[in-house]
C-alpha cells in the first residue's frame, strides 16, 4: 500500500512501482511549433481549450521541443508495450479501490490517458488529466471512445501554468520516471502539483523511489566514444572530446558483468 504523503512533509518520498525504464523521446522532426499556452490558458477553466496562437521559432524554447517530442505516437507505444511498467501501475491502482473510491484525482503528464482510465475503473469520482503535448488531442478521442468523457477532464498546458477547476485533489498519479530515475526532470513538476493541489495527507502514486549506483570501467566504450575524437581521419577533434566526456551515456549493462 502506498505511503501517504502530506504537503508539509519535511522529506520528499516518491516511489517507483517498477524498475522498468522508458526510452528517451525520439528525435524531434521539423514540424510546426505547438501553441504557446502561457498567455492563453484561462485562470480557472471549466472546459479548458487549446489556443490556436502559434509562437515563432524564436519564441520556441528547448522545453517546448521537449514537450513536443511526446506528441509522437512512437514514444507512447514504447511505454504502453512496456508491460512491467504498465501492468504495475494497473495493479497498484486497481488493487486499491478503497483509496480511489469517490476521490478526485490529478494525472500529471497523462499522455494517452491510460492511468486516468485505470483510476476511474478503481472508483475515482473524477480525474483531471494534464499534459502539455499535443498527444492530448488523441487522448481526448481515446477517453471518449472508451466512455470516460464525463469522468475525465483533459487539460493541455504546463502544470506550473494551468489552473484546475477544483481547489484540491485527493490523489496525484504520474509516470514521471526516466533513465537514472530523474531523467526528463518531471519530478519537480509532480512536487509542484503536490504543493499546490494535494490535500493534507493526500496520496501520490508512486510515492517512493530507490536509486542504485555502481562504478564500472569499460575500456571499449571509452575508446569508442571518448578516445575516438583524438584522431578522426587524421584530424584532431579533441574539442568535441571535452564535451563528450562530460555528457552522460545511457546504456544497458549485462547483468553478468563482474562489478569492480
Q: Can you describe this structure?
A:
The protein has 9 helices and 5 strands. With 260 residues, the chain is an alpha/beta fold. The protein has a 5-stranded parallel beta sheet with strand order 3-2-1-4-5, with helices on both faces. Helix 7 links the parallel strand 4 and strand 5. Helix 3 packs parallel to helix 5.
User: Percent of residues in beta strands?
Assistant: 5-15%
Q: Structural class from helices and strands? A: alpha/beta
Estimate the mean pLDDT confidence: 76
Largest beta sheet: strand ordering: 3-2-1-4-5
Helical element count? 9
- N/C terminus separation: 36 Å
Gyration radius from CA atoms, angstroms = 21 Å
**Low-pLDDT sequence parts:** 1-24, 26-62
Shape: elongated
Write down how many β-strands occur, each being a DSSP E stretch of 2 or more residues: 5
SSE pattern: HHHHEHEHEEHEHH
Task: Please identify the oligomeric state.
Answer: single chain
Helix-residue proportion: 25-40%
Describe the structure concisely for a colleague.
The protein is an alpha/beta fold. It has nine helices and five strands, in the order ααααβαβαββαβαα.
Blueprint (SSEs and pairs):
Layout: H1 62-69, H2 73-80, H3 83-94, H4 97-100, E1 104-108, H5 114-121, E2 126-131, H6 135-145, E3 152-156, E4 169-174, H7 187-197, E5 198-205, H8 219-225, H9 238-244
Parallel strand pairs: 1-2, 1-4, 2-3, 4-5
Keywords:
alpha/beta; 260 residues; 12% strand; disordered N terminus; five-stranded parallel beta sheet; 5 strands
Amino acid at each position: 500500500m502506498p505511503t501517504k504523503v502530506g504537503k508539509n512533509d519535511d522529506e520528499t518520498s516518491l516511489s517507483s512501482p517498477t524498475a522498468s525504464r522508458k526510452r528517451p523521446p525520439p528525435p524531434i522532426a521539423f514540424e510546426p511549433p505547438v501553441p504557446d499556452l502561457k498567455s492563453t490558458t484561462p485562470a480557472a477553466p471549466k472546459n479548458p481549450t487549446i489556443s490556436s496562437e502559434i509562437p515563432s521559432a524564436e519564441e520556441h524554447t528547448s522545453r517546448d521541443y521537449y514537450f513536443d517530442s511526446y506528441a509522437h505516437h512512437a514514444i507512447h507505444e514504447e511505454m504502453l508495450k512496456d508491460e512491467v511498467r504498465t501492468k504495475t501501475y494497473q495493479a497498484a491502482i486497481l488493487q486499491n479501490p478503497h483509496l480511489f473510491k469517490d476521490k478526485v484525482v490529478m494525472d500529471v503528464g497523462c499522455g494517452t490517458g491510460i492511468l486516468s482510465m485505470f483510476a476511474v475503473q478503481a472508483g475515482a469520482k473524477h480525474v483531471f488529466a494534464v499534459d502539455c503535448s499535443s498527444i492530448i488531442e488523441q487522448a481526448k478521442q481515446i477517453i471518449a471512445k472508451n466512455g470516460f468523457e464525463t469522468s475525465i477532464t483533459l487539460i493541455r498546458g504546463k502544470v506550473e501554468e494551468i489552473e484546475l477547476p477544483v481547489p484540491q485533489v485527493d490523489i496525484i498519479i504520474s509516470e514521471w520516471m526516466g533513465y537514472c530515475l530523474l531523467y526528463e526532470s518531471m519530478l519537480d513538476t509532480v512536487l509542484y502539483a503536490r504543493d499546490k493541489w494535494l490535500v493534507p495527507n493526500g496520496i501520490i502514486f508512486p510515492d517512493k523511489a530507490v536509486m542504485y549506483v555502481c562504478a564500472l570501467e569499460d575500456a571499449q566504450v571509452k575508446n569508442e566514444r571518448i578516445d575516438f575524437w583524438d584522431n578522426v581521419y587524421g584530424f584532431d577533434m579533441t574539442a568535441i572530446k571535452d564535451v563528450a566526456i562530460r555528457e552522460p551515456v545511457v546504456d544497458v549493462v549485462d547483468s553478468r558483468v563482474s562489478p569492480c
